[in-house]
Amino acid sequence: MFAAIGAFTARRRKWVVIAAVVFTLFAGVWGTGVFGSFTGGAGFDDPASESVEADKVLEGPLGRESNDVIVLYESKVAGQSAAEFGGAVRSALDGVPREGIARLSSFWEPGAQGADAYVSRDGTRMYATVQFAGDNDQEQVEALTKIKSEFEADGVTARFGGVAAMTEQVNALTGSDIARAEMLSIPILLVLLVLIFRSAVAALLPLAVGTFVALGSFVVLRVLTMFTEISSTVINVITILGLGLAIDYALFLVNRFREELHAGADVDTAVRRATATAGRTVAFSGLAVAISFAGLALFPSRFLSSMGYAAVAVVSFAVVGSLTLLPALLRYTGHRIDKWRIPLPGSRGGAAKPLTQGRWYRTAHAVMRKPLLSSLAIVAVLVGLGAPLLGVNWARPGEWVLPSNGDAKVVSKTLAADFDTNPGRTMTSVVRFDGPADRSAVEAYADRLEGVAGVTSATPTAFAGNDARVTLRYAPDPMSRAAVDLVHGVRDTAAPQGAKTLVTGMPASRVDIVDMIGGRLPWMALFVAVVSFLVLFLAFGSLLLPLKSVILNLLSLLATFGAIKWIFQDGHLSGLLGFEPIGAVDANFPVLVVAIAFGLAMDYEVFLLSRVREEWETSGDPVESMAIGLQRTAKIITSAALLLVVVVGGFMTSSILFMKMIGVGLVIAVVIDATVVRGLLVPATMALMGKWAWWAPAPLARWWSRHGFRESAAEERTGPAPEVGAARAGDTAHAAEAGR
Questions:
Q1: What is the CATH topology of the domain spanning 59-168?
Q2: Can you tell me the distance from the alpha carbon of 483 to that of 475, in angstroms, rounded to the nearest whole number?
Q3: pLDDT over 90 for what percent of the chain?
Q4: Nearest to 52 by CA among 404, 375, 428
Q5: Which CATH number fits domain 1-36+198-348: 3.90.550.10, 1.20.1640.10, 3.40.50.720, 3.30.1360.120?
Q6: pTM
């Protein structure tokens, strides 16, 4: 099938390339409009959680008591008091349009709290709060954008905090982060590709396909927004992922095409064989990555589910683009693939070294000489790296994701440090009676809440029919462990007789999100593992190989999670990476890294084992086929990993800490997987398994021989290979040798 795809696109290369150019131009014009098409906001919350249920009740007659925007004012003249610049602030607030605003509170309209609460203890700062009529985060951002300039006062600096302002600031940073990441990564990618291929022509092909896929991803995302709500936060991850995967896939295909040419094949045959072998690997790798992302649909939060939809679509597009455009370009390029060779240090002429003299061949044999000891030592290292995860404190995105000079972050810190009343630290308990709300019972309930550790005040603030609203002020940082205890304490407080309570607010939302992710993540991991197992069986016809691959990938992820906790929660390397640790790790992080890193690990596994299997089908020697397969693929796998590190490393430059966390995590995961796991642990475990690595029960082996995806260059040259379960002469001896 894949050989036929390569032959067809090569034959129709003119129309394929023309269509790709037209589509790329269209993507640059229409597709980039996706930035204005997101309607889903951030979407981190669980729609079925208690906090969201409370928010829905508060949309009714009871009304919300929240501060969507907090505007912090400070004079541009050092030391000037609020009393001196207050007139300018009051004039600005009087001019703010009230359409769409349910409440605008300030020193002059203090509401339930006293006017002095709006002025800092030293008298040099003051704030105003805004509550919008609606609670949809994207609508709030749009409303804030329209009126933001109206809050500006002459001679005064205005900073905007609160959830709506934080979301608006993250959205504003997203586009600039993508542009900066691509400006940094693309020149580095081009240099690395030249170093890898030693040819400018060969280097340009993966970059061309990567650009096509990256721009095309905007079209895919914009089409998706027509059918479902997509979180505004997915764009960074998806576009960079599309670029990275496309370059990875193109690297595999270009490398195999050159191998076939150098082995004496004509151009048409080289295209067909490259697509049949590396193209098959690309398809299975893409399927593995797509399956990993499909697992995100198990999560009810819009951020994770829409990330899943978008990623599956973009990964599928990357596979299709690689399998159609690249064979056409390869056919056009032909033997000119090695043109414009770049003379580099170490690129000596002469005959290539035999495979058996290669560094990775020797490394594979070194770990396979004592495979049990090697396996145990490497597993111990990976488990040790994962040990810090035991003390992790999970959080949810908040103003902490912004850079240190981000308005919402500065406002939050200033309010916590300099004001007696922090309007950002507010929770609400909704009390729902079976009959009319009992005021005295609600007041008694509020008194009980004030006894909960961390609650500074609890006041009944509204009654409507059978419902009542109690507004709570609290002291702990909403991302701290103390805030978790606070939420549990509030929720455990006895409700009035004949009533139930629903608690919402940032700390409650954080607890609900962490609980939702903790409850669904094992199911996602199981889904990804089972489906990946089936994909690997279809690819290789073995029952033990997929099991081994899943276990090794989980070990790699464990080491990554432990390293991220050590860096971001404990604060190690914060100076080098340029962030302020908050003593927590975003709970969305493990979900995204499982989806991305597990898929990429399968990518490298399929590529490596495809070559090992080719050698196994020829020689029947499990140890030698592993060593030769690693020698043939190690350079391209490490090269692909290096290129992907450069692409996702763009996240590390992000000014949004939550994106930086993903970038660092993926870099660690890719490096561990492409070196320690693929280069050392896979050979050791394959030696332990010997010929049984390719084992399947006879009925399954026969089924796979007839229906499995067996297309390979060896088969194309020599015909069908022996049945998977068939014994080969010398297998027992080789297995014995592997075990020594």
A1: Alpha-Beta Plaits (3.30.70)
A2: 8
A3: 41
A4: 428
A5: 1.20.1640.10
A6: 0.84
